[in-house]
UniProtKB/TrEMBL annotation:
It comes from the Eukaryota. The keyword Metal-binding does not apply. Keywords: Signal. Residues 1-22 form the signal peptide. It holds the Pfam family DPBB_1. Residues 114-160 form the RlpA-like protein double-psi beta-barrel domain. This is RlpA-like protein double-psi beta-barrel domain-containing protein. The keyword NADP does not apply. It comes from Mucor saturninus. CDD domains: DPBB_RlpA_EXP_N-like (cd22191).
Amino acid sequence: MKFTVIAFATACMLSLSTMVTAQDDYVVADKNKPQNPELVDFGLSGFVIKKRDTKGRLYKRGQSSGKGTFFSPNRGSCGWKNSKNDLVVAVNEKDMGNKKKGGRNVNCGRLVEIVNDAGKKVRAKVVDTCPGCGKGDLDLSPAAFIKLAPFSKGVVKIQWKYVN
């Protein structure tokens, strides 16, 4: 009898692990704070949760979310001169970090893909740091911002990730 129960429990855990492995690109949340989970793994690693944004799209690991604003680019912290017509962004200080390689931040020149709540997308190059932005926020050049929302909106909810 004990062997049957153990075998059944092990089989259940293995099938649950397989299901979670297939979904491993979703965010891992604190097991003490589940938030409306769609899929929960009660394994040793804690809860794995598929989180959805306000439009029902899934957040994936490696994505950030925050506010998108616009600024007038010039010579940014990466050292390049840019104009309002360039598709460029300034990343908040926390996400930009202080990772230097050869005197320049390693995030300088990376490409980010930005998506608003309506699903409009734009790709832009990281050229600056935004000291006034919170974690997850980006400051976009006018050329990048207008692809997501009209200037009159001023601030737009965004999700973004590095694509290179």
